[in-house]
Design goal:
It is built from twelve helices and twelve strands.
Length: 301
Amino acid sequence: MHVFVTGASGWIGSHTVDDLLAAGHTVTGLARSDASAAALEAKGVTVLRGDLDDLDTIRRGSAEAEAVLHLANKHDWANAAATNASERAAVETIGQALVGTDRPFVLASGVAGLAQGRPSEEADPNPFVGPDSMRGGSENRAFDFVDQGVRTIAARFSPTTHGTGDHGFIALIAAAARAKGVSGYVGEGTNRWAAVHVSDAARLVRLGLEQAPAGTRLHAVAETGVPTGAIAEAIGEGLGLPVTSIDPADAVDHFGFIGQFFGMEMSATSDETRALLGWEPTGPGLLEDIAAGAYFDVRVA
């Protein structure tokens, strides 16, 4: 297939592009910067220059491809409204370009906030609806296009898609430990985060693009839930720092914006995903990656 990928040079996107190319697919990637464009071209990817606000380019890339993979997001936590608006506009543009084609459209989503008191499951509907909700309600908006002849698939990622080179949530938590001189967890540290290695996540996305039927929710989850206290202990051991509990009221001050999430329960299962696609994670676990030093040379801007 010829696949158009937004976020093609990002953390998950770059690994997914590699997996797609290795499987014999051709890729066109959206690139915002010269550096991103050069990195994609070096892999043999056709580049379209633009960003998430360049809807004409996104429309063109979607219309000319046989499948679309939407992984880009501004992740501007200081301006969530603008981030949500751009996400929704991009999803609407892609969906409209694919109406009546029966082509696959895989978009990134997440497992956070799907269930209360238990790990979230693929059958759990996404509660975020409408342009003012988290991610602009993009998962539900994308599924609106199923009845219009689009093979929409949601790839719900774990809160940590980990590996060497990751600059995401775990890197931020490790950076806070360096800055504060202690490795912290929120409250009792018993809340859990689902986790998946980036190589497994990339393979899942490709399999979903190839096989999943319209309306499918996939969970990129290898470990149902790693206790956040155990995450803090692994970071503390790796950095040679003491480990301590942080009062929930002080979490944002200690960790930065990630403190809003580090105390949340974000566990999830992937039983239905594994059965549907024959997907079995093979990469290292989160605590293994931390112990191996994946986050100790990372510098977060």
